[in-house]
Design goal:
There is one protein chain. This protein is α+β, with helices and mostly antiparallel strands and 207 residues long. It is built from five helices and nine strands, in the order H-E-E-E-E-H-E-E-H-H-H-E-E-E. The chain has helices at 21-34, 77-84, 112-119, 124-132, 142-155; strands spanning 42-49, 52-59, 62-64, 67-73, 87-94, 99-109, 167-181, 189-196, 199-205. Helix 4 (124-132) packs across helix 5 (142-155). The radius of gyration is 20 Å and the shape is elongated.
Length: 207
């Protein structure tokens, strides 16, 4: 496909950035929400396992103590990858705003209380689904999946649905965060935060 859209919505300079990349990220996330973007908290999570790198879209669940929060089934492909090698990258592709944020960091399991706190906010159907799905495992057809859901609905028919022991939150502590703003002629603005000696340093990269 030979398509060359030019980018001219905005510009980005170091003097417009907050010294704290998490504060700056919150600003851009708020802009994405205000613009009415679908799933503004959607992010591409890339991990590495024994077969190599793999990526998928997941949702950012929160920002806790400077970390990006996500949740997963420990038995899923990404769950196994996170347990094997915590080095990950996140990409927030806000195309209508001609922006993206790229995060390189290290993932670790969140405290149990963090997982519990998010679990209680999930709709009952999503809680049932977490129990019913053997995430990333093969299944014969949709009917088989729906049968598993029905089985769990019956099991928890008269009680609150507890958090499965195999389901929980992970926190990604960033090492590098890049803010990318599209500019004309592909001369994009790329401002990157890198951590050193407990502080963040901002530098500009060539496009």
């Amino acid at each position: 496909m030979d398509r060359h859209d030019d980018y001219d919505r905005d510009a980005l300079s170091a003097d417009r950035l907050d010294p704290d990349p998490i504060v700056q990220f919150r600003r851009w996330l708020a802009d994405a929400e205000a613009a009415g973007l679908a799933e503004p908290n959607a992010m591409v999570l890339s991990t590495v396992d024994t077969t190599g790198p793999t990526s998928r879209t997941v949702l950012l669940k929160g920002l806790l103590e400077g970390c990006f929060e996500l949740v997963t089934n420990a038995g899923s492909r990404k769950g196994h990858a996170l347990a094997l090698d915590g080095r990950v990258s996140l990409a927030f592709p806000w195309y209508p705003l001609q922006r993206q944020v790229l995060v390189d960091g290290d993932a670790r399991p969140a405290p149990r209380a963090t997982s519990d706190a998010y679990w209680v906010t999930r709709p009952r159907g999503s809680r049932i689904g977490a129990w019913a799905s053997r995430q990333s495992q093969p299944i014969a057809d949709r009917a088989a999946l729906e049968a598993q859901v029905a089985e769990e609905e019956q099991r928890f028919a008269d009680e609150d649905v507890p958090r499965p022991p195999f389901w929980g939150a992970w926190l990604v502590e960033p090492r590098r965060i890049e803010f990318w703003q599209g500019r004309p002629s592909r001369l994009h603005d790329r401002l990157v935060y890198t951590r050193g000696d407990g502080t963040w340093r901002i530098s500009r990269l060539q496009p």
